[in-house]
């Protein structure tokens, strides 16, 4: 099984490494490949749960593109940033 997820904020190989290390321990994950230029994460495995993958990506700071939960997280972080000044 393969899941391809378009994620926000993927900018460099450091981002790719963070994503790979963050998703690798999830149940069913066998490989994680990140295409920095395209902003996609490809995960292969036997029993992948897309919801768990996208939730972990959001926790890591790479929410799924066009996902309302990702937008909410970004808005919350923006409010925290501006309210602390």
UniProtKB/TrEMBL annotation:
Alphabetical list of PROSITE patterns matching this protein: HMA_2
Transmembrane segments: none
The HMA domain, residue ranges: 1-65
Pfam entry (one): HMA
InterPro entries: HMA_dom (IPR006121), HMA_dom_sf (IPR036163)
CDD domains in alphabetical order: HMA (cd00371)
Protein origin, superkingdom: Bacteria
GO molecular function: metal ion binding
Protein name (record): HMA domain-containing protein
